[in-house]
Amino acid sequence: MAVTQQLARIPAEYLASCRRSADASKDGDPLWDPPWADVLDLDWAPFLLERVCELGGLDDVHRSALRQALDGDTAIDLAFLNTHPHAIGPFGPAPTALSAVQVARAAELLGQIDFPALLAALPTDEAEAASLIGNGADKIVGGPKKYVLGHFNALREFYRAASQRQLLVVLWWD
Question: For 25, phi and psi rounded to 5 degrees?
Fold first, then answer.
């Protein structure tokens, strides 16, 4: 089973309900089950997205926003989601989250990134581009450019929708 990055956009009330469920359960089960329509599987794209932004010369403000959108923040206590046997991300770092305010800021900055222009800074030859990107980009069927563009667009849309609904975003590797 491949370990991939997952994101869920949820209301603060849902997270509070999961915390109460974990506290009330004998084995700490938070009953974590966000609606599938509010979950995004980024696969292994986070590493590639960051690398394309680096190679394309994206400024520090927008790179930082992308990094936060991919890494989350540890300010929201999610320890109850990381408790065996119900840990939501048992194969990676502890789950993290972004507040609704942080989600709104990330959505705004992600919306300003011209990702096709960043891709245009890469060699036109897919094999050369994959070599520069690294992180297994050479093994992506169909080429890395289409793959990272699709995942960036999905990430941007995910955050845009979360921001419009004033939701939190929880991130984990599973």
Answer: -80, 140
